[in-house]
Design goal:
This protein is of the alpha+beta class. About 50% of the residues lie in helices and about 15% in strands.
């Protein structure tokens, strides 16, 4: 039932244009032949009429209002579809800009269509001030979150801080690609195929990591240690070789290897290297470089130690009484 009502308000498909054309033609034909007056004679009677205050509502008035609303909103839906299809063909326009323009246009034209429909029905538009006050109270209480998410969605589109196909990471550890932005939520597709609906407000009020906002480059860090008896200069060079030989490692910035500290059982190094496109993944190059380091260390006799402790026991003379 809900989908049927949505289809009535905003029809989809080519049949909508024919339906509007036929309804307009039928109404014009009925007006020319005088059939609308016949319908009014039968429907606008006291038995089919009730009054609310100074407002008189009959069956004819209700049917006329429904017809006007249907015509106005169906025509509006066709205009929106035509404009949307035109905007989709503008390849030079960024996707977020296109979405923003579409949403603003849809809101504006549906508000205008609603006002036109109310005026055609014969309602006094000054009564909307009372409705506006009630709507403001509703937004302040029950619709506060919905309004907040809607406004946050517009802010995201204007700032372009989170765009379609961006790789993002949320404070709770959720990571994935932005697949769609709507008025209430943003759809995130995680690496394991889950689709998560994130309220737009979370992107405004929380800290969000966008891996691809201004650049797709990403740094990978590998920490490891070598035994104290090893040649640490050679170990450093072998670590850098393993990074440079990887096909996804880029030269700018160049890989770097630093000696961090002298640990309890190892000399600790950290390797930093960059990949060109983080969208292709970070775990694979990290794993492959670690395998390469392991092979090079084994070929050159460099040991990666495990934590160990040396225990020294001192024995002393036991004193006895004389």
């Amino acid at each position: 039932m809900k989908s049927f009502l949505i289809t009535l308000i905003k029809p989809t498909g080519a049949w909508a244009r024919w339906l509007v054309f036929l309804m307009l033609a039928g109404i014009v034909a009925a007006g020319v032949t005088g059939h609308l007056e016949i319908a009014r004679t039968y429907l606008d009677t006291d038995s089919l009429t009730f009054e609310v205050g100074n407002v008189r509502i009959s069956a004819y008035t209700v049917l006329r209002a429904l017809a006007v609303l249907a015509l106005v909103f169906w025509t509006t839906a066709i205009i929106v579809d035509v404009v949307d299809s035109r905007l989709e063909k503008l390849t030079k326009m960024r996707s977020t800009t296109r979405i923003l323009v579409t949403k603003v246009f849809q809101i504006a034209i549906y508000v205008l269509a609603g006002l036109i429909a109310l005026d055609m029905i014969g309602l006094d538009l000054t009564t909307l001030t009372v409705f506006g006050g009630a709507l403001g109270i509703g937004l302040g209480f029950g619709l506060q979150k919905i309004a907040s998410n809607f406004i946050s969605g517009l802010i995201l589109l204007l700032e372009r801080s989170v765009e379609q196909d961006d790789l993002i990471e949320l404070p709770d550890g959720t990571s994935g690609f932005v697949r769609r932005s709507s008025a209430r939520y943003t759809l995130i597709e995680t690496f394991d195929g889950k689709e998560i609906l994130i309220p737009n407000e979370d992107f405004i009020t929380n800290r969000v990591t966008n891996w691809t906002l201004s650049s797709t480059k990403a740094r990978i860090q590998i920490n490891l240690g070598v035994a104290y008896g090893s040649d640490i200069e050679q170990a450093q060079e072998l670590i850098l070789q393993a990074a440079r030989e990887h096909p996804r490692c880029i030269d700018d910035p160049a890989p770097q290897c630093f000696l961090l500290n002298f640990g309890d059982s190892s000399v600790d190094f950290t390797l930093l290297f960059w990949v060109e496109n983080v969208v292709d993944g970070r775990w694979a190059p990290q794993s492959e470089v670690m395998f390469a380091i392991w092979r090079k260390f084994r070929e050159h006799g460099i040991e990666i130690p495990f934590p160990q402790r040396d225990l020294h026991i001192k024995s002393g003379e036991v004193k006895t009484d004389a």
